[in-house]
User: Fold these one by one.
Assistant:
Number 1:
Amino acid sequence: GVEVGPQPQGVARADVLDKMRKIVKHGLDFIQLFNEGKEFPPCTIEVFKIMEKVDYPRNKNGEIIAIIHPKLQDQDWQPLKNGDPLFLTLDGEVIPYQGNCTVYPTFINEAAYYEKKQAFVKTEKIKLTAKHLRSSVS
């Protein structure tokens, strides 16, 4: 599967559709070249590994008491450091990120995840290295 976003539920955006088409085309091109016996050299790429899902701050009744801070909104995949604004209470109090490492939040304030009690997902940036790749079929 391929998921490209973020975008609101039920909305078809031309720019996101174009990105999805390009990703699928690259995938199909890779499969064709692999099947033709092309050898791919070793490579290293950066990826984001899911660490944990983070819920909104809630009161003892389970009600949300803070929203995503405006400085975090629409900042998917951008570094979030200790002390950066994370949530904003309805009283205007800033709740900062408290962590011992830089993380990369994604799915920030996605409507589809409210019912799942998920304000965003914390990810870490890691590097993956692949050895050369070639089809063994002649």
Number 2:
Amino acid sequence: VNVMAVSICTREAYQSMKERNIDDGHIININSLGGFFLLPASKVGLKHCSVVVLMGGITNPIRMCSAFFFFFQCISPGLVETGFAFKLHDNDPERAAATYESIRCLKAEDMANAVIYVLSAPPHVQIGDIQMRPTEQIS
């Protein structure tokens, strides 16, 4: 599901931009740092994937086909304070709350800053992958 979902979303984003005659843009995949590690069977290993599509003028992009230019980036955060733990542990809200209280987690604004960083790179710089986690997060 994780591979197919990202592939399908990326394809649809590209097709949508192409249909609307947008000839340059960014496709940013925001997933999870958890997808880079093999966890013991006793722990839950998840890789949440979504695609964010942002469009705008680019002066030095990657050539995807003869008439369209796009940058592809991946932002992989560690523990971000969201409502996800409460969905994962829906029968145990105390455990969910403890997930976010155990360390100083990344915040939504940290993720927004990563996207801004990608978009604000100078024309001669392409950002490929960003892996980020709270300084207190060990794995």
Number 3:
Amino acid sequence: MDDAESPAPPQAGTRLYTLLHSNEPPDSSEIAVLQSTSSRIDARLDVLDQEITRLKQLTEERALLVSYGIQNKGILSPMRRMPNEVLVEIFGLCVPSVKFDGLWACRFSMRRAPWVFTRVCRLWRTVALETPGLW
């Protein structure tokens, strides 16, 4: 048997099967076979442990690459290249207003527009703060 194979479990009715399912001691002639089988099992476990470690390393590397790939795609986002004038128009459509005595007034809330725009990114903050019509 080479390192690629795992020892087969014993078949019912065999002496090894009986030994595994009872408290009978092995005969002196069986000890060498059992030790050899045990050594082969240990060797195979070592190989599998190495493969598992390598698989964990590959999984970690894949997760890093997926994250890096997402970040790179984010850099290519059309939102990063959108002209400020378009952002101003979109922001203006999102500002909630209420009419009091013929005047439009915004309700104050840090969770609503235009305040929420200032917490998205540096560009959005700059555009929002430099657009008096939002305030």
Number 4:
Amino acid sequence: TKSVIKNIQWITGNNFTVEKGRRQIEEYISTWDVHTSWLHCSEFLQEEELNYSKRYHYRVCWSVPTRRKPIPRATASIYFVIEISKIKPATLPVEVFFTLESSRLIHRPEQCQFREKWLKDIIENKIILMERL
């Protein structure tokens, strides 16, 4: 069976603020099918001015703290970009895309289903690297 790609109704360019963008990312993340042991925090990083748009960069940092190890050995970051066009009407929804730490592949919320395995792979690879060093 084909899985349903979950998305949210993204804010329009004329209603956008940095904080509303962060809250929308949180709302989108809440549609992901991840185990409740995963915790995350989101933060705004920077604003980028381009010729035809403005980009707002955010980071969502994920980890699985436990009672025995409340400070996890490694974390996984997902980088979101919210782009507002200077050319298209401000009444259109913002463009959103994200990349995983250590990957250059660009994901769009309306085109891909997030997989918890991506977070696990990032953390496992970091732990393997730390053990080798």
